[in-house]
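#struct-pred
JK: can someone run the complex with coproporphyrinogen III? inputs below
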Amino acid sequence: MMKDGKFPMSQTKTILRSLAGETLPTPPIWMMRQAGRYLPEYKATRAQAGDFLSLCYNPDLAAEVTLQPIRRYGFDAAILFADILLVPQALGADLWFVTGEGPRLSTITAQSDFDALKPADAIHETLNPIYETVKILRRELPEETTLIGFAGAPWTVATYMIAGQGTPDQGPAHALMQGNTPLFEALLDRITEATIDYLAMQIDAGAEVVKIFDSWAGSLKGDAFQKYAVLPCARITKALKERYPHIPVIGFPREAGDGYVGFHAATGVDCVALDNSVSPEWAAANVQTSGCVQGNLASSHMVTGGQALIDETRAIVKAFSGGPHIFNLGHGITPDADPENVTLMIETVRSS
Ligand code: CP3
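RT: done, structure tokens with the ligand placed:
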């Protein structure tokens, strides 16, 4: 049973058992972006909502798309349907999505842009519908399914707020970090405070686990990785643990490479999510020795399927079989994925 009884109310839900440090015979499974455009039922509900942001802010429809992959596949966890960029919007940034291209935001490049932002505790005005979605989900999910809430990590959110869009190398954010460090750090602090409040409200509404997505952590090196990826994640985790000691936290410093080593201890997270640039054998020896890991099948297998999917899935399950592990992809499933390949992945994990 549980190694140290860290999360006493969690015995029946497999994901909570893994997060408490238990090694299970079969790893629990969920998938990043499991509610998404590869599913026809998602596309239908999104069309009904009108557009992506209207879907995020419509609690009934957001709960519906969250539940779709649970009904279809029986994943062990549901992740709240929302987006990391709702926090900047709630802080006062303009946000819109360009079809086929991605998000666009008003930019933060000067002190006056920052001064126009709202205080962290003003976010709930905008984000109330998200808490409503969480409440609906807690009522409607099967009792064995864990509900995961989430937010973007301050660095990743800041990269979008500074550049006004996704950037291949996060150049504008690095430029502000170098050129106006006090402004950059003030922005990171504001996002950190808002993220703590936002995740606390998700937990109050019924989220059982929270995940912090640092999708662009890989472009921070050395001291910058410590200051702008590790420390904000540690600050958020500490603030949440003070109020909710029983709620596990998953950190995802994507493409951190050797930065994954020691990340559990440095941040206090219960689980480190791994992208697929690290081998499961290396991660088992260097990261899982410090706690639960999540990952890390390449999402391209969800497009290509076949024997390669089966072989790689089995290799991941085997490599992580000696410790706590939650099976997942290394990044979100893509719109061109074949829903049948998801079934094949789940069957392979559960029969490994
Ligand atoms: O995982 C889930 O199913 C939960 C919901 C979720 C979404 N976005 C829904 C979404 C989560 C956890 C996110 C996180 C997110 N959003 C991240 C971090 C994880 C990652 O993918 O690196 C980032 C960087 C964003 C910002 C974002 N949102 C981008 C860059 C895009 C456009 C890219 C794309 O895939 O089109 C989005 C849109 C988005 N967020 C979609 C979904 C399902 C697709 C929008 C649509 O339906 O048109």
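RT: quick notes.
The two ends are 21 Å apart (CA to CA).
The beta strands are 77-79, 95-98, 102-105, 146-152, 209-214, 249-253, 271-273, 292-297, 325-329.
JK: thanks, will look after standup
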